[in-house]
Structure formats: structure tokens, C-alpha cells
Amino acid sequence: MRKRMKPYSTNEKLLFALKSVKIIPDAPLMNMERDVLSMVSRISDAVSENIITLMACYKWKESMHFLFPFVEADLSDLLRNNNSRCPPHLREKLKAGEVLLDHWLWQQMEGVSRALSAFHTQMENPFKDVKGKVIALHFDLKPANILVTSGPDGVTLKITDFGQSIIQIIDDDKDISLPHNTGHPRYGPPESRPSSQHLTQGSGDDLKVLLNYDVWSLGCIMVEVLIHLLDEDLNDFDSKLQGPFYIKEPNGLKKCVTDSFRRFEQAFQHDSDQTEYMKDIVALLQNMLNHDKNNRAYSSTVTQKLDEARGNLEALRDGRNQLVVAVEKQGFKDWKGFRKLGWHKGTSIVSFSEKEGITLHLIRQRTGEPVYKNTTSIPCRISLWAKTIRTEQTQTGIEIGLVWAVEKGGTPEVGRKNFDPRKWCFAPTYVFPDPASSTNRFDCILFPEIGTTTPGDDDFVFTLGFPSLEDVLIFQGALFQRSILPPISISISTLKPKREAEAPKINEQDSYLQFWAPDKPKYVGPLSPDGKSDRTKPRGSIDSSSTGLSEHNGRALEKPFETMVILFKHHRPLVFTLKKGLIKLSRCGSTALQIDNRVDKSIHVRHPPIYQVWKSEDPRAAPRQPCLPVDPEIEKLSECILKILTIRITLAKEQGKQ
Fold first, then answer.
1. What residues does the Protein kinase domain cover (predicted)?
2. How far apart are CA 214 and CA 296, in angstroms?
3. Share of the chain above pLDDT 90, in %
4. List of residues 6+ apart from 555 with CB closer than 8 A
5. Backbone angles phi, psi at 76, to 5 degrees
6. Interval 495-526: pLDDT, tens
7. DSSP calls for 397-459
């Protein structure tokens, strides 16, 4: 008993509080507190620290009796200094130069949010003969129902008074909703007051609410805690609020609440790191206080967002690059189905935000004007995301998300774009660098096909510069869902099409050969135990027995390949893609290769067009680039097909090697 009382007092003398509730046989909601407290007492992990401890429960005569530790002060006493029950040192506000994350009261509010999430959906089902998931709602979360305890391990906030709570056991696939129970009107969400339409069409007793009902209440409490900690006048806020936090018409929040949000964001004007943190917290509060319950955050999301905001601030305080923090914060993680793409680093796959030395030149496609003035390229950090699109369990394509962050005026400026890769182009300009450029950079251009996107969209042309050839190939591979090998300098001595009128224009000398292998997306996280990424089963491979590639590109023989690309400086590329079987490359001497499609008719040859990159008042001045479609299923596209009978290639050397 004394051990269980330790968090509540430093005194030898133990004090208890007894709550008695009369049993009413025909009022199940009135008797539910017993069941709730019984189940809450079974929560055993760290979150239980922020929930009141039930010491004993027993039935005597016509009442249920609950024995709790006696706690004199609650959060309302602390915030409003209502009486002398709360010691003065607990009412201390945030000092000048103090970090909000380091204040015990804000740390405890994080703990309360975790406890609430556990109470909502993480309690164990105690009934062996009843299958299903336990869900619960408190319904009366308010400062007066959050106790302030002081023990040898410090001060702790504890959720109490489950008298209005409701629990249910539901099937896992059932909509999570509960019958409404009335709590304090100040902290209740808009749905706590039924609309006139609901009251006229049915009984108010059948009103259903979602598990984020309590999230609204928690958001209200967090607003009051921040007002207190930031040394604002809570009494003045109370006088302006005069009732609930919301207004019915139009649906929204009262002005004193939204004014508080602005002050929160401006509270640390001389501390850019905490300013970014407060922006995260305000965004979270706005989500918690969403008038529409269907779009309001749930308690699990609240804890996740608080952890993410804490992690971002700690990263900035530890000296982590602010662009990395910004680009990670503004990703597509909240977009359903999107997952973050990455690259191999040791035994893990890490985000592209960890790649240093990337630069960005951003152009508005509709005007050709640069987004970032007075600079051709600017250092940036990026993250890359992908979403699988399925129809009846069959993958039909993907959607790509690109996030970028640059520094403007000492602060990060973040942008993001999601797009259908079938409508976008990739220009591998790293293959043909500008000889006049003094920088040893490896660039590529990513842009939508003009006329394929929705009118009014703010479409961009991305010129991304990478510090190494390996880096740009990794980026291209993530976009294409392919393993991309370095280009090999070649010359073409023979190219015979089926029809002479279809003969493609080529640079016989200034050309490069590149091989692609199938590769599944690399999602950020630890690798499988063998340290290898999962590969799709290849549809074909290079027949290494008949090639002389080992001298010029030994890495090409390490993996199966199904696509061979020939890139020209000024002309349309040729993309050789398998339909079935192996690509047969016949050896013609030690450095020459030949494909004879008259013998093996399994090869598709695509001839993608040259695309205009952005619009210009003078069409003749508009830049144009030989491009590859950004589409992982490139072999399924049937347009621009050529019939090539024979091609003979002479290998020179792999790009980047002497």
C-alpha cells in the first residue's frame, strides 16, 4: 500500500479519499464508473503514472465505494490560484530564457496526452468470453479533474473522476463511436450540444460521438496551460471567453482563442528554435480544436505530433541542420498511403534529407521566371515520398511527393509537390554537363509535360544539383523504382530500323549507354536481417556470357537488367525494354556490342520525344530537353515505339572513370 502511495506524498502519514456512488439498477451509465476504474487500474506501463490510482473498490449495502489517495490540489487550483492548496513553487511560470520543453508542467501535459490515448484504445479486454477491442471516453476532462500530486519523484498530473466515462467492447472493424454523455460545457466540443435539427428529428440520448471528443477538451486545457506558462492573464482570457471555446455560426473558434494562437507563435521572437516549436504546437491545437469532429485529431495523433515537435526542437538545439528539420516536418506523412523513400546508409535506409550538398534552381513553368530571385541555384534539403495506387488489390501506378527546403532570410522556406509520374519528365543533364561550367556538379531536371496538368496549378521546373554521380543516380533510381548504373560513353557504328523513314537522329560519337534493373522502392527504416533490399523478380537480364562489359562496367554484371537506354546530347533517347526473356548482346570484338532484333524479337524500342521545359514568349527561345518519362512501369507504355532490326555499339568508358 505504501509503495502505491509513494507518488502522492512525501509524508509518512497516508491520507485517502473515499468516493461512494449509489447503485441504480436501471441506469447502466451511472454504474459504469466501477467498470472503468477497474479496467484503468490494469494499465501497467508508464502512461499509468498520469492516471489516478484506484486503491480499493467494494460494494456496501446499496452503494459502490472507491478508495483513492487523497490529493488536495488540482490543475484548476494551479492555473487560477483559487486557494492555498497548491504550493507557490508549483505555480511558477516560464522564466526568461527557459525552454518550454524543460518546464515540468508542459512535460506533464505531454504525459496526460499519452495517458488519454491509452485510456481511449489501449486498455485490455478483461472478458475472456467476449471478443473485441475496448474503447473508452472520459467525457468530463477539465482542469478540476486533473490532480496535481507531489511525491519524492517530483510533481505529477493525474487524470481523475471517471464518473461520466463510458466504455464499450467493439469489433475491430466497427466504426468507433459512443453514446454521448454530458460533461463541463466550457470544455465540451461542438457536438456536445446537439443541433436543433437533431433535437427535432430524434432524442438527444441517441447522439453518437467519436473518440476525439476528449481531444477537444484536452486542447482547451493545453491552451489554458500555455496562457499560464507564458505569463499571460488567464482571468482576462476567462472574461473574454464566457462559455465554450467555439462559436456555432460560423463554425469556428472565439476570437480570444485565435488571438492566443498568434501570441503563442510570437512568444519566443528571439529564439528561432522555440518559435518553430510553437508553430508546431499551434498547428496541433488548431487540429485538436477542429469544429468538424470527422477531421479532428485523435489522441494517438496528439501524442505523435507532440513527440515529433519535441524531436524537431531537440534536433535544432543539438545543432542539427535546420533545413533537415524543416523538410522532415513538412513531409507527406499525414497524407494517407504516402511512405518516405530513402537510400542505403550502412545497415539502414535513411531519408534523402540526410544527403548533403544538393542545390536547387526552381522555375515557374508557366512564365519561365525563377522562384528564388538573384540566384541560379541555392543549397537545399529534400525528402521523397511515394504512394502505391491500387485497383482491386492490383497496383496500377504510384504517386510521387517531393519536399524541399531552402534558407531565406535566415529561416527555412519549405515547399512540396505531389504528382503523377506518368505526366512528368526527367532530363538526365548530368550525362552532358555544360563545358563552360566551373562547378563539378551532376544535375538533372524534373518537370511536368506542358499541358498535362490541371490549369491553375503552380507547376515548377526543378533543376537539382548533386555533389556526385552516385547521388544523382540514387535520386533517379528512387523516382523510377530502378537501380540505375553510371552511363558508359559509346559510339554507334550501325543502326538499322525496319523502315528507313523511321530512322532516328543520333550522335554517332557523343552518346552514352545506361542500364536499369528492376528495384522495389526503398522505404525509410532498418534493412532486413540479411542487409539487402527486397527486389522484384526480374523479367529479364543481360546475358553476360556474350558481352565484353566486364572491362568497361563490371558493376553491370552484378544484377539482372531489363532496360537499356542510349542517351544523345541533342536528340531523342532510345529505350530498349524487354518484353520477355534475355537481352542478347553479341560480342563484336573486345569493345563492341550488337543487338540483332531480327533473331530475338523480344525487345521494345521506345523513342521518347524532346520536351519543352517551360513556356516562353518566344517559342524558339523556350528550352527543350531530351527526356525520359518518370514512370516505373515504362515498359507498359506503347506510344513512340520504333522497330529497330540491328544496332552496333562501341564501348568507350564508364562516365566518371579515367
1. 1-316
2. 11
3. 37
4. 485, 486
5. -65, -40
6. 888 777 777 888 777 789 998 888 888 999 76
7. EEEEEEEEEEEETTEEEEEEEEE-GGGEEEE-GGGS--TT--S--EEEEEEEPTTSS-TT---
Q: Rounded to an integer, what is the distance from CA 41 to the centroid of its chain?
A: 34
CA dihedral over 322, 326, 327, 333, signed as positive or negative:
positive
Q: How many CB atoms lie within 10 A of CB 13?
A: 5
Burial 234-251 (b: 16+ CB within 10 A, else e): eeebeeebeebbbeeeee
Helix (H, G, I), strand (E, B) or coil at 257: helix
Compute the CA torsion angle 92, 98, 99, 105 (nearest 10 deg).
-10
Strand, helix or coil for residue 491? strand
pTM: 0.71
623/160 Cα distance (integer angstroms): 67
Question: DSSP state, 554?
Answer: G
pLDDT value, residue 589: 58
- The whole-number pLDDT of residue 543 equals 35
Q: What angle do CA 517, 520, 523 make, to 5 degrees?
A: 135
Q: In sequence order, which residues have a C-beta less than 8 Å from that of residue 612 and are 6 or more positions away? A: 450, 622, 623, 624
pLDDT at residue 382, as a whole number: 98
Distances (CA, A) of 72 to 9, 150, 456: 11, 10, 61
Give tens-digit pLDDT for 297-309: 999 999 999 999 9
Sequence-distant (6+) residues with CB within 8 A of 172 are 132, 133
- The whole-number pLDDT of residue 548 equals 31
- For the 16-319 domain, the top CATH level (class) is mainly alpha
Whether residue 626 contacts residue 609, with contact meaning beta carbons closer than 8 Å, is answered with no
Q: Are 355 and 361 in contact (CB under 8 A)?
A: no
Task: Give residue 546's pLDDT.
Answer: 32
Burial of 653 (0-12, 13-18, 19+ CB in 10 A): middle
Q: What is the pLDDT of residue 333?
A: 87
| Res 579: pLDDT | 57
Task: Give the whole-angstrom CA distance, residue 62 versus residue 20.
Answer: 10
What distances in angstroms separate CA 473 from CA 426, 489, 550, one per listed residue? Answer: 12, 16, 20
Write b or e for each residue in 475-484: b if 16 or more Cβ atoms lie within 10 A of its Cβ, otherwise e. Answer: bbbbbbbbbb
Distances (CA, A) of 640 to 575, 605, 626, 645: 10, 8, 14, 16
Residues of the chain with pLDDT under 50: 198-200, 202-206, 528-559, 581-582, 635-636, 658
3-state helix, strand, coil in the chain (%, to 5): 30, 30, 40
Contacts of 370 (CB under 8 A, 6+ apart): 361, 362, 363, 364, 376
- Looking at residue 204, what is its pLDDT? 42
Cell of 320: 542539427
Closest CA relative to residue 382, chosen from 364, 399, 406:
406
- The x, y and z cell numbers of residue 574, run together, are 532510345
Q: Which three cell numbers stand for residue 348?
A: 539502414
The answer to whether the CB of 67 falls within 8 A of the CB of 16 is yes
Strand partners, 22: 63
The residues near 11 (Cβ < 8 Å, ≥ 6 apart) are none
* Contact assessment for residue 492 and residue 648, using Cβ atoms and an 8 Å cutoff: yes
Contact indicator for 444, 427 with CB cutoff of 8 Å: yes
pLDDT at residue number 176 = 61
The answer to whether 534 and 520 have CB atoms below 8 angstroms apart is: yes
